[in-house]
Amino acid sequence: MSFPIVRHRRLRGSAGIRGMVRETVLNPLDLIQPIFVTFGTGVKNEISSMPGVFHFSLDTLKEEVDEIASLGIPAVLLFGVPETKDAVGSSAYADEGIVQEATRLIKSWYPELIVIADTCLCEFTDHGHCGMVHTHTAADGTVTGDVMNDASLALLARTAVSQAKAGADIIAPSNMMDGFVQAIRSGLDEAGYEHVPIMSYSVKYASAYYGPFREAADSAPQFGDRKTYQMDPANLREAIREAETDVLEGADMLMVKPALAYLDVVRVIRDQFDLPLVAYNVSGEYSMVKAAAQAGWINEKVIVLETLTGMKRAGADMIITYHAKDAVRWLRE
Ligand SMILES: [Zn+2]
Asked: What does the record give as the active site (predicted)?
């Protein structure tokens, strides 16, 4: 008996040989760092549920951007917390809006750093929904409402145009209205921004993993939830239909959000479509790792690199992650 004929352990015998046969390599160039910008001056406030992630006002932002640029992270994703909110999210598409101002500053400091503008209304509306709402107040004071799809599209296109005008390199619409890619593409083209790509949040689930983000972006819905526009976590075939629609409407990149509980979705979208694919390693995924690391229950560095590598192995070309700065430091060690 000549067992074992096959010895898998031959290729695991040393760090050198393991490196030679490694199939998936995480690269700093794969990572995108989100940034939260807010109004006021002198603000650098840590978000309590996201240790290590801060709100920055425009006058404190440079320190953060300097660090990101010096680490060689190629891109940032901007979220804005405005001073005033209203029913139609008008500060989302104001030329002097917080995201527009931050974009101009970052591009003036680092012309090569890619600025991705998140295009949605929920951070800018007083009701916290991603589009315009039609509300109804019952006799007992209970407010209900519907998000109006087509009426919201014009505002989203207007937001994207104002972001492109401020210098955003990529428009990333996250609102999940039907037809949003086409509406934004048309708006950008008509305004002369036909060269600006769209990174579509194509497959975005109605997920409890967004909880810490809603504190960070102050964007929790004031009534109802987002289940009429974000996807049911149980659905996979529907993810293919969502992505297919975005491809037909002219999306340049696709996204799956969240990432960790949806790696099967990442793999299916990777296999079905040939556009670059982004996975969003969301706030709740980040906060769980941070909490466990603070309790001393896990090795944060190894867990983070393993998780991000898993997302790449599942098929993501790029990963939006709050761990980006740490991950790049660890990759360079
Ligand atoms: Zn939104």
From this structure: 204 (schiff-base intermediate with substrate), 257 (schiff-base intermediate with substrate)
Binding residue numbers for Zn(2+): 120, 122, 130
**From CA 55, how far away is CA 26, in angstroms rounded?**
28
**CATH number of the domain enclosing 278:** 3.20.20.70
Q: Known catalytic residues?
A: 204, 257
Q: Which helix (H) or strand (E) holds 172?
A: strand 170-173
What is the C-alpha to C-alpha distance for residues 314 and 182, in angstroms, rounded to an integer? 28
Question: Does residue 10 sit within a domain?
Answer: no
Structure confidence by residue, pLDDT tens digits, 131-162: 989 888 888 888 888 889 999 999 999 999 99
Q: Which residues are annotated as a binding site for 5-aminolevulinate?
A: 214, 226, 283, 322
Query: Contact, 272 vs 237, CB < 8 A?
Result: no
Say how many Å lie between the CA of residue 201 and the centre of ligand 1. Answer: 11
Q: Do the Cβ atoms of 171 and 164 come closer than 8 Å?
A: yes
Specify the 3-state DSSP secondary structure of 231: strand
Q: How many CB atoms lie within 10 A of CB 154?
A: 13
Domain membership of residue 223 as a residue range? 25-332
Question: In angstroms, rounded to a whole number, what is the distance separating the alpha carbons of residues 87 and 41?
Answer: 26
> How many structural domains are present in the chain?
1
Cα-to-centroid distance, 136 and ligand 1 (Å)? 21
Q: Is residue 293 part of a domain?
A: yes
What are the backbone angles phi and psi of residue 104, rounded to the nearest 5°? -60, -40
Q: Please state, in angstroms and rounded to a whole number, the distance separating the CA atoms of residues 332 and 31.
A: 14
Give 10-residue mean pLDDT values along the chain (333 residues). Answer: 84 97 97 97 95 97 98 97 93 95 98 97 92 87 86 96 98 95 98 98 96 83 88 98 98 98 98 98 98 98 98 98 98 93
Query: Measured in angstroms, how far is the CA atom of residue 175 from the centroid of ligand 1?
Result: 5
Task: Give the single-character DSSP code of 181.
Answer: H
Sign of CA dihedral 79, 80, 86, 89: negative
How many angstroms separate the CA atoms of 92 and 80, rounded?
8
Looking at residue 1, its pLDDT comes to 64
